[in-house]
Design brief:
CATH superfamily of the largest domain: P-loop containing nucleotide triphosphate hydrolases
Number of helices: 21
Strand order of the largest sheet: 10-11-9-12-13-8-14
Number of domains: 4
CATH class of the largest domain: Alpha Beta
Strand content: 15-25%
Shape: globular
Largest sheet: 7 strands, parallel
CATH architecture of the largest domain: 3-Layer(aba) Sandwich
């Protein structure tokens, strides 16, 4: 598979036609085909096929001063006669002594007997190789270069992503040839931006990223290219936001202060300061002529449902319908029940639409929705079916937004035209991720939990603690509390996971927990069965619920105080935190017990981190560092940008800097001088990267 490449500086009209790689000696059709798999068709492609790192080669002043290990360069002459030994079929070892005035060292080649015919005895060469010791010191598989090509100090050689049949030698040779085309590259960033952010020119950056003179020249080259990759992506998002604000009319939904007060007064609890702040931000959004496009994220239990209720209430106050889409039927039903309770004081008519409803029931709901007889509809993917239409849709809310693809959100939004949109995430999103994935959205952060909540005590134990865990469960049950037990995670298969849950449930029911009321919940159960189990659990008829991760999101049982997670090492930190968030909803002390027998030090360190904090934002930052942006939400999402050099974790500072510059360009702060170059670059970007939009 070839890499998705930006190649922003490769535009026809600004540069010459690039040479095909087969014009280079040694690259025939077969090797060219393998290079094509890396996205390399021309020498220009090679220029932007950046190394993933560099090998450093340190010059030893003499053979005597060669260090004990590592990559080295040294000058010397071959002395005596080379020897080639055939050890066995398929293995030959060729040795030849290298000498200078200070001493000698043995050079060793494996399966390269032809090397002895390439060099002359007593002629000085530059030797590059890895120092090792097998009985005596050796330079293993050395590369030979002309003596005059040996630089003082340290030499850096690029290390490229490669494919089968393409060696680093091939790629380095191609890169050297590609350097001849550097003069044809035009500058891609306006001078004003380069000066303000102290960026080197593109030609210098490309040359040094491949063949740096030293570490001091490599750093600014990498910074320039990373900045540029982030900048164009951020500028595209800024332009989307600017276009929406200047050219798109949204539903007219002004909210008066008395309407806000009426909503808050009708709630069964006092909102937190963070909720009040977010509501104020939404009121500001509604005052604009363009549609709201806002992300609300926060820790488990921070009150996102209240925010959703306010948005749906605001749309209703202005004569519009609202829709909220959830990823699972369990969560859709629960949202329907909670929202119905919150919106009932205003006479707002609610309903829900899910796949498991009977055809007759679904048809009745669709007719009422189209006729305007339903004000707020909650549902799953069933909401985006072609035959679902609205009378006057004005507000769309997606809950647990990372579980929906870009297209699914867009389909629901399109049912009302340019409607207001709120996306919610119970996974706190680090600032870096918000910039990267939601740069075209306004962001609200719920960083405050309701008063009276106690931190959840979290412990990491191994199998030896099982008897104590079972005893602890009985004590909690006798105190009128309830327990979740998350069964061992198996391969990513609903059927296998269901089997594992059933087996785990039967072992506990018939053995250590035979004296408590125990229930079972997994993804393969019929919707009615799931609903019945959850009703029994929330109403206290089930004391211990054995479950798969189906309870991870949204399932709310106020009486649950203990979360036990088997095979905790198989979950990401954010997912463990989500599971932990199913308890601790009331005033009682709650507990999370992570069971793991892993002896891996990194794994133990990762799980130990969870025992030290209940702060979801700290957990999400750590999870992002460990797993990277692509896997942060559990699965790779369509629409996640792919960069060649840029890494949102390592280059967080540059990302923020590039986002700031992009915003300045979008707002016209650099003046008209930047216009033509920016427009040409964006036009090229759209042709190459036409799926960068998040919604």
């Amino acid at each position: 598979m070839g890499r998705a490449k930006a190649n922003h500086f490769l535009s026809k009209g600004e540069i010459m036609i690039s040479s095909d790689i087969q014009s280079i000696k040694g690259i025939g059709p077969k090797k060219a085909d393998k290079l094509h798999r890396l996205g390399i068709y021309t020498l220009r492609d090679m220029l932007s096929f950046y190394p993933r790192g560099h090998e450093s080669w340190t010059l030893a002043p003499s053979i005597r001063e060669i260090p004990r290990d590592g990559n080295i360069m040294v000058k010397g002459s071959f002395t005596g006669s080379p020897r080639t030994l055939r050890i066995r079929k398929g293995l030959t070892i060729t040795t030849w002594n290298l000498a200078d005035e200070s001493g000698t060292i043995e050079c060793v080649w494996y399966n390269q007997p032809y090397r002895t015919k390439q060099y002359q005895s007593e002629k000085e060469y530059g030797i590059m190789g890895c120092v090792g010791k097998k009985g005596r010191r050796q330079i293993q598989n050395p590369r030979i270069i002309p003596a005059e090509a040996v630089d003082t100090g340290t030499k850096y050689l690029p290390v490229y992503p490669s494919a089968e049949g393409v060696s680093q030698r091939d790629l380095r040779h191609l890169a050297q040839e590609a350097m001849k085309e550097l003069d044809g590259i035009g500058e891609t960033l306006p001078e004003a931006i380069r000066e303000e952010h102290q960026l080197c020119g593109i030609r210098e950056a490309v040359h040094q990223i491949h063949f740096p003179q030293n570490a001091e020249t490599l750093a600014p080259a990498r910074r320039r290219i990373v900045f540029e990759e982030f900048f164009w992506y951020q500028l595209a998002l800024a332009r989307i936001r600017s276009h929406r604000q200047n050219n798109v009319l949204g539903p007219n939904c002004p909210i008066e202060k008395e309407d806000v007060k009426a909503f808050i007064d009708a709630m069964p609890f006092a909102p937190t300061g963070a909720q009040v702040r977010t509501i104020d931000e939404i009121v500001g959004d509604m005052a604009h002529s363009y549609p709201m496009n806002r992300l609300v994220h926060g820790d488990v239990g921070s009150g996102k449902t209240l925010i959703a209720a306010f948005c749906l209430y605001a749309a209703w106050k202005n004569g519009y319908q609202g829709a909220i889409m959830a990823p699972t039927e369990v969560l859709a039903r629960q949202l329907y029940q909670v929202l119905t309770g919150l919106l009932k004081p205003f006479g707002i008519r609610t309903a829900y639409l899910i796949g498991s409803q009977s055809a007759k029931e679904k048809e009745k709901i669709k007719e009422a929705l189209g006729a305007g007889e339903i004000d707020v509809i909650t549902g799953t993917h069933a909401l985006i079916q072609e035959d679902v239409s609205f009378h006057n849709l004005g507000m769309v809310v997606t809950d647990e937004q990372h579980r929906f693809g870009v297209g699914q959100r867009s389909v629901l939004k399109a049912k009302g035209g340019d409607v207001h949109m709120l996306v919610m995430s119970a996974t706190p999103i680090p600032r870096t991720m918000a910039l990267l994935f939601f740069g075209d959205l306004d962001v609200s952060t719920l960083d405050e939990l309701p008063k009276g909540r106690k931190p959840i005590r979290t412990d990491l134990v191994d199998q030896r603690y099982r008897p104590r865990i079972y005893q602890f469960i009985r004590e909690r049950v006798q105190s009128g509390e309830q327990i979740y037990m998350i069964c061992p995670l198996v391969e990513e298969s609903d059927a296998l996971e269901a089997q594992a849950a059933v087996s785990y449930y039967e072992i506990l029911r018939d053995g250590p927990l035979a004296d408590v009321r125990i229930g079972l919940l997994h993804g393969k159960m019929k919707p009615g069965e799931k609903e019945s189990v959850m009703r029994d659990y929330t109403e206290g008829r089930i004391q211990v619920l054995v479950s798969t991760t189906v309870v991870e999101v949204g399932v709310d049982a106020p009486g649950a105080t203990v979360m036990i997670i088997e095979n905790a090492e198989r979950f990401g930190l954010s997912q463990l935190h989500q599971l932990r968030g199913r308890v601790g909803r009331g005033s009682r002390q709650s507990y999370c017990i992570l069971i793991s027998d892993s002896q891996n030090e990194e794994t133990k360190k990762r799980l130990k981190f969870l025992t030290q904090t209940c702060d979801g934002f700290a957990v999400s930052e750590e999870d992002l560092k460990l797993r990277g942006p692509g896997d942060f939400f559990g699965t790779r999402q369509h629409g996640i940008p792919a960069f060649d050099l840029a890494d949102p974790i390592r280059h967080m500072g540059i990302l923020k800097e590039a986002a700031k510059a992009a915003q300045a360009v979008a707002q016209g702060r650099y003046g008209k001088a930047c216009g033509p170059m920016i427009e040409r670059a964006l036009e090229r970007l759209e042709k190459r990267e036409n799926k960068i939009l998040m919604n």
